[in-house]
Amino acid sequence: MPIDAANPVPPNFQRVAGPDQIPPHVPKELIRSVGLTMGPDFLAAPHDYMKKLHDEQPPIYYDVSPMGNMWHFIKHEDCLFGLRHPEFFSNEGATPFPRDPNDYFYFIPIEIDPPHHRKYRNIVDPLFCPAGVKQLEGLIRQRANDLLDEVEAEHARTGECEFTTAFGRPLPVSVFLDIMGLPQDMRDTFVEWAVQLLHSNTREDMADAMQKITVYLKGAIAEKKAKPDDGVVSLIANAAPDGVPLSDPEIFGFVCFLFIGGLDTVFATLNNIWLHLARDPELRAETINRMETDPDKVVEELLRRWSVTFSGRVVEQDVEVRGVQLKKGERVTFILPAANFDPEVFPDPLKVDYDRPRKTILAFTVGVHSCMGGHLARLELKICLQEWLKRIPNFSVKPGTHIEYRPGGVIGPEFLPLTW
Ligand code: HEM
């Protein structure tokens, strides 16, 4: 029975967590506890850890964790299969963010299975398609250069620059606010809320962030209903697909998911890439060179090498993959960064190779739920590389820095002090 997003009800899923709750059909030899997103090996060097999964784990295993037990898929082929078959792997109830059961809503479009999902994408896809985002190019370049002025000023004053707070986080948040039609003075608050929601150690902290985001976004939606403009919040707030206006929970669930999907992912991507450019002068020189001739190849390979997030699903009907039985209601995570390191598809996967044969990368997933902001994110990354490398071609991590990653579903260094 498909869910009715206009009249949402909290799903009736039981959380299955810990070694006492392993279903009897799971073969003992496939049970693991790999510490994804929070174990010490993951937090020490997350992308090396994703590569090692292929050396140490079977292609599909059952991970037992206090945060929830679930199947992990690490092979490129298996992730493609799962992501392309929503009839087996559903998005309903697959999102981990807490919500008030008395004021429930679905995250749209991510929690809506096809065919209903298309109705929502149709509202905003024209803005997020390649031609739509191309129109933002001048604006993004301007925002990048405004921040670069501040970056250079900070460096002149202090001899260093903390990349994540000076550029990596504010740039995508600024662009996001422009697109959404929200005021720029919310920039630093949005950064703070996004970090609290996605990298808290407790569900209480996540719920607190969610509460603050909710109050703000509901206010913004009410304003845009009263006074429409051409930003995305207004477009969603006033949408009437097939002549039927969206309900309040649909509008809120859509705008709120854009906040969740469109901020931390982009800044984590920038922070990862800049960390590695700062550490590797040869990679930097080659990147500067290749940005002149093949910017799109550069962007695609960097997105493969430092992809930042995962796809969660719930098994919709019993299915067998690689001889492993998965039962209705069980949770699955497609480990996208691991799929991007599958050595059968991307030989020598940790190497950045701008001339790799073109293959589907999974940074943005594939299938009906492939990232709505993928073209925007690619454009932002391209412009940031072009503008930064033009003005600051040589930079390195401040000596003595310990790079820290926080637990969470989006992978990126917490702080990145640079010098040049
Ligand atoms: C480098 C940056 C980004 C990365 C790595 C990324 C990654 C992803 C991934 C992996 C998914 C699929 C999740 C799943 O299958 O469960 C997704 C979906 C989505 N992303 Fe992104 N994203 C990025 C930027 C953005 C931006 C800038 C926006 C919007 C402003 C955005 C909006 C969305 C939306 C709305 C969805 C849900 C699509 C659907 O369900 O049809 N993302 N993203």
How are the elements arranged and paired?
Blueprint: E1 31-32, H1 40-44, H2 46-56, E2 60-63, E3 70-73, H3 76-84, E4 89-90, H4 117-128, H5 130-134, H6 137-158, E5 161-162, H7 163-168, H8 170-180, H9 187-199, H10 203-226, H11 232-237, H12 248-262, H13 264-279, H14 281-293, H15 295-305, E6 311-315, E7 319-321, E8 324-326, E9 331-334, H16 336-339, H17 374-391, E10 396-397, E11 417-419
Parallel strand pairs: 1-2, 3-9
Antiparallel strand pairs: 2-3, 4-6, 5-11, 6-9, 7-8, 10-11
Helix pairs in contact: 6-8, 6-17, 8-9, 9-10, 10-12, 14-15
The chain binds protoporphyrin IX containing FE.
Keywords:
globular, six-stranded mixed β-sheet, 420 residues, alpha+beta, binds protoporphyrin IX containing FE, Cytochrome p450, 11 strands, three-stranded antiparallel β-sheet
What does this structure look like?
The chain is α+β, with helices and mostly antiparallel strands and 420 residues long. The chain has a single domain (19-419), classed as Cytochrome P450 (Cytochrome p450), CATH 1.10.630. It has 17 helices and eleven strands. It has helices at 40-44, 46-56, 76-84, 117-128, 130-134, 137-158, 163-168, 170-180, 187-199, 203-226, 232-237, 248-262, 264-279, 281-293, 295-305, 336-339, 374-391, and strands at residues 31-32, 60-63, 70-73, 89-90, 161-162, 311-315, 319-321, 324-326, 331-334, 396-397, 417-419. The strands form three sheets. The chain has a six-stranded mixed sheet, covered by helices on one side. The chain has a three-stranded antiparallel sheet with strand order 5-11-10. The radius of gyration is 21 Å and the shape is globular. The model has no long low-confidence stretch (mean pLDDT 94). The site of protoporphyrin IX containing FE has 25 residues, from helix 12, helix 13, strand 6 and helix 17.
